[in-house]
Every structure is written in structure tokens, then in C-alpha cells.
Specification:
The protein is mainly alpha-helical and 119 residues long. The protein contains six helices and three strands. The longest helix is centred in the first third of the chain and has 14 residues. The chain starts with 13 loop residues before the first helix and ends with a helix.
Length: 119
């Protein structure tokens, strides 16, 4: 087991610690951020988000693309909608899903870029 480095001085950089403490978000905001990343932690949801990163799709399109049932995709889309990661629009009887905004596109794009760095 690797040993963690220790500080030579207790709170050697108090001014930095206090500066960062003053900028730290509330516990509730940090919890919300952790929940957001938890939602990104599911491979099926990531596949759905990545597909929507490429193009607006209906539930049937997503189900066909991922080889899953419409019911399973609908369940995941409900989670993604409640997290405000996707939105939808109706065209007749068809509902099309898309990423909610540019932030979600950026998170996916940068995440993929990071994941591919060693390739």
C-alpha cells in the first residue's frame, strides 16, 4: 500500500485554505453535483447521452441503436429528464429527445476527449 505524503507543517498554507473555503459551494450544491455525476456513472445512460450528443432521436431510435427495449430506454430517459440532462419535443405522435443544453454537450465532449487521451 502506498503511503500518503504528510505535511511538514500543520496548515502550512492557511491563507490558501481560507481563500478556497470562502469559495466552496454549499453542502447542498456539492451534493447536487455528486448526484449529477452519479447519473453519468451508468453506462446505459452514457450511451443514450452520447447518441443524443450526435443527433436528436425518438425512443424507438434509441432502443434500436442500443439493442434495448423501448420500456428500458423510457425508464432511463425519465431519469435523464429529471436530472435536466435531456429535453424533448413532440412532432405529431412522436417524441424526440435531445441534450438539454450546451453544458451537457460540453461535459460529454470533454469527457470523451479525456477518455481518449491515451489513444
Amino acid at each position: 500500500m502506498e503511503e500518503m505524503p504528510s505535511c511538514e507543517f500543520l496548515h502550512a498554507h492557511d491563507h490558501v485554505v481560507e481563500e478556497i473555503r470562502g469559495r466552496m459551494p454549499s453542502e447542498d450544491r456539492l451534493f447536487d453535483l455528486a448526484e449529477l455525476f452519479r447519473i453519468f456513472g451508468d453506462s446505459t445512460r452514457i450511451k443514450i447521452l452520447y447518441a443524443l450528443h450526435e443527433h436528436e432521436l425518438c425512443v424507438c431510435d434509441i432502443a434500436a441503436l442500443l439493442g434495448m427495449t423501448v420500456s428500458a430506454i423510457s425508464h432511463q430517459l425519465r431519469i435523464l429528464k429529471s436530472a435536466k440532462l435531456v429535453n424533448f419535443r413532440r412532432e405529431g405522435k412522436t417524441v424526440f429527445y435531445a441534450l438539454a443544453d450546451s453544458h451537457v454537450h460540453a461535459i460529454l465532449g470533454q469527457g470523451m476527449e479525456h477518455a481518449c487521451e491515451d489513444d
